[in-house]
């Protein structure tokens, strides 16, 4: 088995620890604050449009999210939103950036098990400072030989990272996002393992592949150790 698979890479947010729930909480607070100006459904549509529009400029992460909320608040209220609301949105962002890490169930036992046989790395996108903080405060850094924080995840991203390690053909990517974690990793030539999270940003949703034996979907991350041998023997 070790001859075929040598490196296992993990996404971070909503794969190793909770993340999306804090964005959902902030969105609900945002809707409450803007309720005098715009209905919630219209506000959420405007916010998602702003987020997608701003990805290339702000990237992924809390800071871009807060800037998009402020932009949306100004636009949907025709500039009438008071400074106090803008201040509350900024406070919400600071709270998100300082929120304690909450590991997902089974993560520690899974990493402890697979780290005995494979090289482990983190490949995550988002704000550099915030993601570094999360890795450090998670207590999981001891399991990883490398942490790669990237602006986006594309086939070339995975090819470049895996080629510096044991080669893409000897690598596996594990994550909660089909769009970012699984599909581009499969396209690059690695194995891809999808571990769905109960909350997933609409931008990260995609259709699972049905034309490759290098893909597997798990109910939970703790299923990974017992699934590896079956997967790599098929793929």
Describe this protein's structure.
With 235 residues, this protein is of the alpha/beta class. The chain has helices at residues 20-34, 40-58, 62-76, 83-97, 107-114, 128-138, 155-163, 178-188, 224-234; strands spanning 7-10, 119-125, 146-150, 171-175, 191-194, 215-217. The chain contains nine helices and six strands, in the order βαααααβαβαβαββα. Strands 3-2-1-4-5-6 form a six-stranded parallel β-sheet, sandwiched between helices. The longest helix is centred in the N-terminal third of the chain and has 19 residues, at 40-58. 35% of the residues are buried.
Overall pLDDT level: 92
Low-confidence stretches: none
- Biggest sheet strand order reads 3-2-1-4-5-6
What proportion strand?
5-15%
Rg over CA atoms, rounded to whole Å, is: 19 Å
Biggest sheet descriptor: 6 strands, parallel
**Termini gap:** 12 Å
Q: How many β-strands, per DSSP?
A: 6
Order of helices and strands: EHHHHHEHEHEHEEH
Count of DSSP H/I helices: 9
What portion of residues is helical? Answer: 40-55%
**Protein structure class:** alpha/beta
Give the overall silhouette: elongated
Oligomer: single chain
